[in-house]
């Protein structure tokens, strides 16, 4: 049998993969008792999970609610930085590697918990010396270097709220996020390495700050060291070098006693309408959720080397590079660059070099590895791996099987974890010592999490039937609100199915065993390589161009990225479609949002399919872009429009 045929056979069998016996024997969770406990006493279970943390004062009430607003561990006092660092200093862990960092050019840094304590304390004192106080917002726009988690934990230490902006976002996106949060300080770097090139973060920051009056100071980490990256626009009095400021800071800094419900951070994410919204996470519930899931989902042991390949600019990095692993006293690996630099073996080189035991990555990366060929991982010793995971988008069974065979070498359980920026922590997932996994399914909710698949009226659907994924009970790590816009929080998440049911925006179904299969977004959010982008954002960027009259954007299937952005554009009179115009519009979107939003293709058209009430019918555009027979067109104002578009699309392929 060819490997293709083998895979096809595997899929037809629809096999369940039981946990390997030697893994199960040593796992934290060996049976369903955790799930049962949580089912019988949900709040008691979460209270026990919260006990995993260090509290300066215990809470009075586990959960207080007035749907859709929830408060967890009310009256409790704690500090996230203390939980991620200080509490590990009293044991042998103080000399344990907290962060193992590798830069893209191959430079390395290892920070023990004691090192982390010193650096974070100094950074906290640095922020204080610049006037940062409890509740102030600090925007962090850094590459994947140790100063990024150091800055986050420094904010947490003094009660400042961080807002990390992914380094791939444009100056304009950065400005929007700084202004929404009204940040006082921006922490950035001269640049970061990406595939051998420099990302000019300081230059982007300078551009952004032309429209950000709230910012008083910019702290600049010297990562690259090229004078030209900073010199052209260094603003005396505003711009300060990180290393100069850090030099004389005291290396201890008392922690603020934060209320369980005090904000920890804001993280912007795309929704179905409007600009990205600031998802607000608070301290006690969030840390409880990420610590518990890190422990149980990854079956994390003290001796493990754990590597999550996400960028800290996204929630996966916040929860599963920084807060979860450090709260658990783990060794967490951080890598600055891309998987194909200097060659396509870079990830496997890192696994081999640091003897990584647990690897957490994304389906889009796995599909790239598949395309590059199994000979790349085969060249390295991956025998240290004992558990592998995925997150960010649905994983197709072929990719699951490939990951299982070529990375897990048939012996590592796979945890396919479903969650969102808004949920803060993993919500649907196998527990690797007990759950039988199934390719393409995230399996069942984590203990203490209640999920359901419902129809449009909110009633649960039967096995195999498609519906909407909802969460029927609050969980501690979930967002508390949208920063500065509670109405949007209610409208976005708690209006579709009522005030006490959280709508995820995802479509899903359950199989006969109650396993969840997440199909993807059912709203106007596109998931490109695991990154969320709103159609509205890309459309606004396009119509911002002087040649564009109207634009409609959809996500279409893509072999590697999961989804790719397709744009349909009507040009203004006097402008002609051309390759040059297509290129210019793509660049315009990159300038406005960032490279992650670059449309895969732009189709120029004279008209767009609209309903009689004037709504663009994206469903039809998706049918066209994915080459399907056209669905129902009877509600269209002018059915000829789609037919013409379809012919045109096929002609350009
Ligand atoms: C999708 C990333 C299928 C889903 C942590 C969700 C997934 C969105 C999975 C959140 C998974 C995430 N299987 N789909 N295991 N994990 N998704 O906010 O559509 O960047 O709503 O959070 O990614 O993306 P976000």
TrEMBL record:
Query: What terms describe the molecular function in GO for this protein?
Result: acetate-CoA ligase activity; AMP binding; ATP binding; metal ion binding
Q: Kindly give the Gene3D superfamilies that the UniProt entry links to this protein.
A: 3.30.300.30, N-terminal domain of ligase-like
Q: Where is the AMP-binding enzyme C-terminal domain?
A: 537-615
> What is the catalytic activity of this protein?
acetate + ATP + CoA = acetyl-CoA + AMP + diphosphate
Tell me the ranges covered by the Acetyl-coenzyme A synthetase N-terminal domain, including all copies.
Answer: 33-84
Q: Which CDD domains match?
A: ACS
EC number from the UniProt entry: 6.2.1.1
The entry's protein name is Acetyl-coenzyme A synthetase
Instruction: Tell me what organism the protein belongs to.
Output: Caldinitratiruptor microaerophilus
Q: Which gene encodes it?
A: acsA
């Amino acid at each position: 049998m060819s490997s293709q045929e083998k895979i096809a056979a595997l899929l037809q069998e629809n096999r369940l993969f039981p946990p390997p016996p030697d893994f199960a024997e040593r796992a934290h969770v060996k049976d369903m008792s955790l799930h049962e406990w949580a089912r019988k006493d949900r709040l008691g279970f979460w209270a026990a999970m919260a006990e995993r943390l260090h509290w300066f004062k215990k809470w009075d009430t586990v959960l207080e609610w007035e749907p859709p607003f929830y408060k967890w561990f009310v009256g409790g006092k704690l500090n996230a930085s203390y939980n991620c660092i200080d509490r590990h200093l009293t044991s042998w862990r103080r000399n344990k590697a907290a962060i193992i960092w590798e830069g893209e050019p191959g430079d390395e840094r290892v920070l023990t918990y004691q090192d982390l304590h010193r650096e974070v304390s100094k950074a906290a004192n640095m922020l204080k010396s610049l006037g940062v106080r409890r509740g102030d917002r600090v925007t962090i726009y850094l590459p994947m270097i140790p100063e990024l988690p150091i800055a986050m934990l420094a904010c947490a230490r003094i009660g400042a709220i961080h807002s990390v902006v992914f380094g791939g976002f444009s100056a304009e996106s950065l400005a929007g996020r700084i202004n929404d949060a009204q940040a006082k300080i921006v922490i950035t770097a001269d640049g970061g390495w990406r595939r051998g090139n420099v990302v000019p973060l300081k230059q982007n920051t300078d551009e952004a700050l032309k429209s950000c009056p709230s910012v008083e100071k910019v702290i600049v980490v010297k990562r690259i060291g090229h004078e030209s990256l900073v010199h052209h626009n260094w603003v005396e009095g505003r711009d300060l070098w990180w290393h100069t400021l850090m030099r004389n800071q005291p290396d201890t800094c008392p922690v603020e006693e934060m209320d369980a419900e005090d904000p920890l951070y804001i993280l912007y994410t795309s929704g179905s309408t409007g600009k990205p919204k600031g998802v607000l996470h608070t301290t006690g519930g969030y840390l409880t959720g990420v610590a518990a899931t890190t422990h149980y989902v990854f079956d994390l042991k003290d001796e493990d080397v754990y590597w999550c390949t996400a960028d800290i600019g996204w929630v996966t990095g916040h929860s599963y590079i920084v807060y979860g692993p450090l709260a658990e006293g783990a060794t967490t690996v951080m890598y600055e660059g891309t998987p194909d630099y200097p060659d396509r073996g870079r990830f496997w080189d890192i696994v081999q070099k640091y003897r990584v035991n647990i690897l957490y990555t994304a389906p889009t990366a796995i599909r790239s590895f598949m395309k590059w060929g199994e000979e790349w991982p085969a060249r390295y010793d991956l025998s240290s791996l004992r558990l592998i995971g995925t997150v960010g988008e649905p994983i197709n069974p072929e990719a699951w099987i490939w990951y299982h065979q070529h990375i897990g070498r048939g012996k590592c359980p796979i945890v396919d974890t479903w969650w969102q920026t808004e949920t803060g922590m993993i919500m649907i997932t196998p527990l690797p010592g007990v759950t039988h996994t199934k390719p393409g399914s995230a399996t069942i909710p984590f203990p203490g999490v209640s999920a359901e698949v419902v129809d449009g009226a909110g009633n649960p659907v039967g096995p195999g039937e498609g519906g909407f994924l909802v969460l029927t009970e609050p969980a501690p790590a979930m967002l508390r609100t949208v920063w500065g816009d509670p109405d949007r929080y209610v409208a976005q998440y708690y209006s579709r199915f009522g005030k006490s049911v959280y709508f995820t925006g995802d479509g899903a179904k359950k199989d006969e065993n109650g396993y969840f299969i997440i199909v993807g977004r059912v709203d106007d959010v596109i998931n490109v390589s695991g990154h969320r982008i709103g159609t509205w954002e890309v459309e606004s960027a396009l119509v911002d161009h002087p040649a564009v009259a109207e634009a409609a954007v959809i996500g279409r299937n893509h072999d590697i990225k999961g989804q790719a952005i397709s744009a349909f554009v009507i040009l203004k009179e006097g402008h002609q479609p051309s390759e040059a115009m297509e290129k210019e519009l793509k660049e315009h979107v990159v300038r406005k949002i960032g490279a992650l939003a670059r449309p895969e293709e732009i189709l120029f058209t004279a008209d767009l399919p609209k309903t009689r009430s004037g709504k663009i019918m994206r469903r039809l555009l998706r049918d066209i872009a994915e080459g399907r027979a056209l669905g129902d067109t009877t509600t269209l104002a002018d059915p000829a429009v789609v037919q013409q578009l379809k012919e045109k699309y096929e002609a350009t392929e």
